[in-house]
UniProtKB/TrEMBL annotation:
This is Uncharacterized protein. The lineage of its organism: Bacteria, Pseudomonadati, Bacteroidota, Sphingobacteriia, Sphingobacteriales. It comes from the Bacteria.
Length: 347
């Protein structure tokens, strides 16, 4: 497994949700009328920095709202949580309260992180409210359709609400858990290979260790691992093919090193093939939804012409397949990725 560092642009614009995408979201129950918008949460008067447990700046801030706005905000946020978790059934928030509202100025969507707590047992949950970015929404949809993971989110015009994805951040796992003697290193390496393959097929970029989490599931005879993306800002925007291959980020080197130590060329190719077969199965079961998503995204401008030209040249060289040079959009590249998987799996 090859590894080197790669840099990406930090100036990706926010792409608005078009009427065609809004119609798609309504068809697949992703649209919701929300009582509180992203812009409402921006109406704080001042904020204070939030430090992590080591006393370092966490890059999150604690916004301070006017006293007469707090109750309205909290009630609206509880309704949003009910919409996200229970199709609007307010009984699930009957004994819950909003404990924290936190704001992050790092990244493209400047999210708010909301902590909601059950006052009966102190069990808490998080959800996020962000600027609605069309490319991010396409990333969430691709994750829902082509990955083994389900994603839960809602959109109301310029506001995006996302469910919290639980797991150990990839950088924390690499530092503190990767070499746990109770964990089978081959299983971890296998999962990283599959994740790497999935990102390239879906053109999900910037999967550095802090943009994914590791989920650990004890099984009856071993421990299973699943890598899940948690950041979809860089969905098919960049032109550098290495952006879509997690193996090329220096932050992921511990996983790459483990793969080089644990896997042979034969097993590496085997795990790639397993993931392609899984993707093919999901394509067949969700073909109508995938077609609808393709038809919408293919009509939108979600990157630059230069990035499309650069990526189709790079991916044509990577796969030794000149068909990619005929692609006109990022969506065309993903569609050709899927068609090639169908041909390969059938062989």
């Amino acid at each position: 497994m090859e590894q080197s560092d790669v840099r990406i642009s930090r100036k990706k614009p926010i792409f608005p949700v078009s009427p065609a995408l809004q119609k798609y979201l309504k068809t697949y129950q992703r649209e919701s009328k929300l009582p509180i918008t992203y812009n409402d949460l921006l109406m704080f008067t001042e904020s204070y920095p939030i430090m992590d447990k080591y006393g370092k700046d966490s890059l999150w801030e604690g916004p301070i709202y006017a006293a007469d706005k707090i109750e309205e905000l909290h009630n609206g946020l509880k309704i949003i949580y009910a919409n996200l978790k229970a199709s609007g059934n307010l009984r699930i928030v009957q004994h819950k309260y909003i404990d924290k509202i936190e704001y992050c100025t790092f990244g493209n969507t400047h999210p708010f992180r909301i902590r909601i707590v059950n006052r009966l047992n102190d069990v808490y949950d998080y959800f996020y409210i962000k600027k609605a970015d069309a490319s991010r929404i396409y990333g969430l949809e691709m994750e829902e359709i082509l990955s083994p993971n389900q994603v839960n989110y809602l959109v109301d015009r310029e506001t995006l609400v996302e469910e919290h994805i639980a797991g150990i951040p990839g950088d924390v796992f690499a530092k503190n858990y990767l070499h746990n003697p109770e964990y089978n290193p081959t299983r971890i390496a296998k999962e990283f290979v599959k994740f790497n393959e999935r990102c390239l097929v879906m053109l999900l970029g910037d999967m550095r260790a802090y943009n994914f989490v590791m989920q650990i599931t004890p099984d009856f005879d071993d421990i299973q691992f699943r890598i899940r993306a948690i950041d979809f800002d860089q969905q098919f925007y960049e032109g550098n093919i290495k952006v879509y291959l997690p193996q090329f980020f220096k932050e992921n080197f511990p996983y790459v090193k483990m793969g080089m130590e644990q896997l042979t060329d034969k097993t590496y190719l085997q795990y790639q093939q397993e993931e392609k077969s899984s993707i093919l199965h999901r394509v067949r079961s969700e073909r109508h939804r995938l077609t609808d998503l393709r038809d919408v995204s293919n009509t939108e401008i979600l990157t630059t012409a230069e990035n499309i030209e650069m990526l189709k040249s790079g991916i044509a060289e990577y796969f030794s397949d000149r068909q990619y040079l005929e692609c006109k959009t990022m969506t065309d590249i993903i569609e050709l990725n899927i068609k090639n998987i169908i041909r390969q799996v059938k062989l």
